[in-house]
Amino acid sequence: MSISPERPIYSPFFSVMGATSAMVFSSMGAAYGTAKSGVGIAAMAIMKPELIMKSVVPVVMAGILAIYGVVVAVLIANTINKEGTTMAKDLTNMGAGLSVGLSAMAAGFAIGIVGDAGVRGTAQQPKLFVGMVLMLIFAEVLGLYGLITALVMMYA
Amino acid sequence: MSIKTGIASALTLLGTFISFYIVYALLTNQLFLLDIGWLLTAFGPIYWASLGIGLAMGLSVMGAAWGIWSTGASVMGGGVMVPRIYSKNLVSIIFCEAVAIYGIIVSIIMATGLKPYNGDDPATLAMNYESGYRVFGAGMITGFCNLFCGICVGIIGSSAALADAANDKLFVKVLVIEIFGSVLGLFGIILALILSSEAKFGEMK
User: Does the distance separating the beta carbons of A12 and B180 come in below 8 Å?
Assistant: First the structure.
C-alpha cells in the first residue's frame, strides 16, 4: 500500500506478473514432464510391472520443478505489500518470476522426453537406469539455475 | 492444415493488430495509447479483477474437460474388449473434475470480494488498483495451472486405462503418477489464495 513517486500506482502489476509467470510456466513444465514420462511408464509396465516403482524417478523430478515455482511465487507475493517496496523491486520481481518460470518449463520438457525414452529403454536393458538418472539430474539442474538466478535477483 | 500453420497465422494476425494499433497511435498524435502505465490504469481495477475471475473459471473448466475427454475416450475404447475397467477408471475422471471444482471455489471467493470505491483519496485508489492486479494474477495462476494439471491428469489417466486393460494389477501403481500430476492444481489454488487474500476493495477503513 506504499504509494510514492518511486512507486506509481500501476507498479504492483509487475510483481504480480512475476509471481504468475513463476507459477504458470513451472507448472507447465511439471505437467509436461509428468505426462510424457507417465505415458512411458504405463506402456512399459505392461511387460515389466516390477520396474514401476523404480521408474517413478522422472515423475518425482518433474514435481520438484513445480515446487521451485511455488517457492519463488510465494516469496514474490510476500514482498508486494511490504513497506519500502519501490518500483525497482517490483520490476526485479517480474524478472525473477520469468527466470524461474521459463527455466523450469524448459527443464520439464527435457525431463519428460528423457524420462519417457529412459523408462522404455530401462525396461529392455536394466543397465540403462543409471544413465537415465544422470541425464535427468542434468535436466533438473536447469530449473535449479533459474531458481538461483531468481533468488539472487530478489535478495542480492 | 497443421498446428504449425494455425500458430503461425494466429501470431501473424496478432502482430498485424498490434502494428496497426501502434501506427494509429503514432499518426493521430495519441501517444498516451502506447504508455504502459496508462494501459494498466485506464480501465480500472474492476476490469482486471473480472478478467482474472473469468480466466480462473474458464481455463480451469477447459483443463477439466480436456482431461475428461482424453481419459474417457481411452476408457471407452479399451472397455470394448475388457469391460471391467470402466468402474475403476472413473477415479481418473474424478481427479479431472476436481480441477474444475478448484476453479469455481477460487472464482467465487474472489468474486464476493468486489466492491465499488470512491476514487478521490490516493491511498484508496492505490489499494483498489493493487487488489485488482492481485485478483488478476490469482485468476491467471488458477486458470493456467488447472489447465495444465487437467491435461496432464487426462493423458496419464488414458495410459492408466490401457495399462489396466492389459493387467488389472497395474492401475493402482499408475494412479501414483496421476496423484503427482494432480498436485499441480493444488499448488495453483494455494498461490491464488495467498495472492488474493490480501486483496481488499472498497473504501479504506
Answer: no
